[in-house]
Sequence to fold (209 residues):
Amino acid sequence: MSRNIKASLTIAALGIAALLTLLVLELGQRGAPDSAAETRLTAAIGGPFTLTDQNGARKTDQDFAGRPMLIYFGFTYCPDVCPTALDILGGALEILRDSAPDAYQALQPVFISVDPTRDTPPVMRDYLAYFHPRLIGLTGTQAEIDAVKRVYKIYAARRPQEDENGNYNVDHSSFFYLMDGDNRYLAHFDHAVTPKTLAQGLAQKLAQN
Ligand code: NI
Fold:
């Protein structure tokens, strides 16, 4: 198998595993309408973080209090999955701007790096400019990134192999997480969603919230 196919399969397998976890959590929530089950789900994804944005400013989850966030974890050197997902995100934001302007204004799209060694703030700034002007990029020390990955239940692992230029790949789970204004889990969307479906899902979830 080529490296790309292997990478795609690995990412697909990781995605399925993470989706199953979310599904079990969601089914648990549906099957038991008590608030304890809801607390389990909302407590499972998301939590406090302290990171650095693409302009070098320190940001915590509290800086986004009161605003729903759409969060995607990835890395700027990603050859295919991340740029595709961010294209979809940018397209969805443009649709949302016209179809649900209040939701668009409220929503803060956030890209969090799983590769802080290479994703410095200037690298993040240049990269995110390709996708959408509203996107905030967050990076940090390896310890800060490990902590935020833990609270959002993100899998990411650097591959040992490097090419002749010292470039390496990072396998990572690939979802859009929608968090409410209190940084509690509202919904997730697969990275293979269409911009239109993502925009509709966001509008619907934000209208209910
Ligand atoms: Ni990626």
Observations:
- Residues 112 and 127 are 12 Å apart (CA to CA).
